Amino acid sequence: MNTMKQMTNRQKKRDRCDLVHRDGRLCAPSANYFENRAQLAYGFWALPKLMKELGSDKSEEQWRAINSLAEHISNPLHGQRAINVYEIVRSRDSMMYTASSILDMITKDNDDVYYLHEHYRALNSLTDIYSRDVCAPSYPPSLWRHLARFLELMPHQAMDRGFFMILRKRINGRLYNYHIHDMKCFALLLRCPEGLTQLLNCDGIKELYLILSDKTRILSTYENVVFALMNGLFGRKILWRCAELTNLPDFIVKLAKDYTNINMQLWCFQCLRELGAIPCVKRYIIDSFYEDLKNIKCVADANEKQRAELLYWLSREVYHISNLRLHEREKIDENCS
Length: 337
Description:
Layout: H1 2-12, H2 46-54, H3 59-72, H4 76-86, H5 88-106, H6 110-120, H7 122-132, H8 141-153, H9 155-160, H10 163-172, H11 178-189, H12 193-201, H13 204-213, H14 223-232, H15 236-241, H16 248-256, H17 262-275, H18 279-294, H19 301-315, H20 318-321, H21 326-336
Helix pairs in contact: 2-3, 4-5, 5-8, 8-11, 10-11, 11-14, 13-14, 14-17, 16-17, 17-19, 18-19
């Protein structure tokens, strides 16, 4: 009878680790490592099996195959075979383009952007992607559009995550299409005070000027370069820094003559208006480009209105703006005499 009780007690304690000392310690929890991994075959049969499971309709099977594939191709021999035989790099790029397109479609509205950031920390994920390799040759255009929506709505948080330095390094490195995607995102960061402060500290306005004046590397479009310049000019110290870049208005007026790019032309007019706040620059624009500005063609009503306002403002002197009219000046002169 006693023997049966002892056997029963032992049976109850099968989930205990230390049966000898009977101190009641539980067994360590089972590892879930293999739950997230596929069952691999030995040798060269493992890769075909993983590639087959990657195309499975079952999401769990795909997930296990992805986790196992990442470890399997860490072996250079298997990695080279995956590239040569199964074109794993092309498959990865295809998946990235597909995922980026989906993200681009689901963040059309501002509410969607805030929802993704609040519930899934989407901006943190984007930071991980772009900071992983700052000098990556390119990213899908849809991923850039996805990022731009976050930078437009929350530039302060993007600045805290280091996007200013990431994008600036990519621009200075003249990476592929940097003047289109990288520059637009960079310009959006300049819409917050922290972005303007960083631009002033690194003399970023000089870097934009060098891009505009570089005749050895003609860009396909300067739209986002002008966009970044316009946003940067809202900083007063940056604006006065432009007084030292004496021929900066030359490049802006030249770009303003391109009436086919409506956005760039509109931003050029705005840049000239901001630069004209510096008296010496305003006089230079009047003497050198007033007639050119009068003859510039505009196909959009907003551009024509902005051009007319710019010409009107350039034709006004300081005493016009300050309500110090000519007849009032004559009265003052008479009283003084």
